[in-house]
Amino acid sequence: MVVVGCTTSPSIIERPGPDASISRLPEGSSDQIWASSDLRAVIVRPTFDESPAGVITRDSRTTLAILDPRRATWLMNARLTEQEGLELTARIQQLVIENSLLEQRKEGSELSVQLRLQPPVGESSLPIPGGKWRVLTKSISSGDHMVHLGIVDAEGETVVAEVAMDMVVARDLMHRLAAAVRSPAY
């Protein structure tokens, strides 16, 4: 008796995923601040999503997310078109250059997150339809050497989550984001 089996890999559907989302704050967090000293910026292009039913979709946009590796959680993330990624990179670059012109610089590696909204009870994340990344820092002053980015709602008026990073992290993010948005999204 010969048994022959044929399997095919599941097809991947090209479909935009959620524009943005934020996670639930962990127990013990206060003042909407995510309590972790080990946060990282993650850039993914393209992004693959899998539904609970096992359907795999591909979104060619670049995802910029803030990750807490200890909890294996994306705290906040939003997807960027190529143009949005280039504009975000250019604005971060302006702030990094502005900081380099100041005489006294604080160098380190700092990243902190504030989540201003929370998912409904029982949900682990809150989708933000039309949510986008925006640079919130207007200029670098001699007293504050942090770059603040936020995820804003579809109208661009309400900041639902904010990340503050020092110049070391901002410079690294600028280079990695520029490379990701300029690469093909296969």
Report what the structure shows.
- The strands form 3 sheets. A 5-stranded antiparallel beta sheet has the order 3-6-7-2-9.
- It has one domain: Secreted effector protein pipB2 fold (2-Layer Sandwich), CATH 3.30.2450.
- The longest helix is centred in the middle third of the chain and has 20 residues, at 82-101.
- Strand 4 and strand 5 form a beta hairpin.
- Helix 1 (82-101) runs antiparallel to helix 2.
- Residues 1-6 have low confidence and may be disordered.
- The N and C termini lie far apart (42 Å).
- The chain is an alpha+beta fold and 186 residues long.
- The protein contains 2 helices and 12 strands.
- The chain is globular.
Properties at a glance:
four-stranded antiparallel beta sheet; alpha+beta; Secreted effector protein pipB2 fold; 12 strands; 186 residues; 33% strand; 2 helices; five-stranded antiparallel beta sheet
Secondary structure elements and pairings:
Layout: E1 12-14, E2 20-23, E3 40-44, E4 47-50, E5 56-59, E6 62-68, E7 73-80, H1 82-101, E8 111-115, E9 125-127, E10 132-135, E11 146-152, E12 159-166, H2 167-182
Parallel strand pairs: 1-5
Antiparallel strand pairs: 2-7, 2-9, 3-6, 4-5, 6-7, 8-12, 10-11, 11-12
Distance between the termini: 42 Å
Mean pLDDT: 86
Given as residue ranges, the uncertain stretches (5+ residues, pLDDT < 50) are 1-6
The CATH architecture can be named as 2-Layer Sandwich
| H and E string | EEEEEEEHEEEEEH
> What is the general shape?
globular
Total individual domains? 1
State the total count of DSSP E strands: 12
Largest sheet: 5 strands, antiparallel
Q: What's the CATH first level? A: Alpha Beta
> What proportion strand?
25-35%
Strand line-up across the major sheet: 3-6-7-2-9
Number of helices: 2
Could you please say which CATH topology applies here?
Answer: Secreted effector protein pipB2 fold
Query: What is the helix fraction of residues, given as a range?
Result: 10-25%
C-alpha Rg, in Å? 19 Å
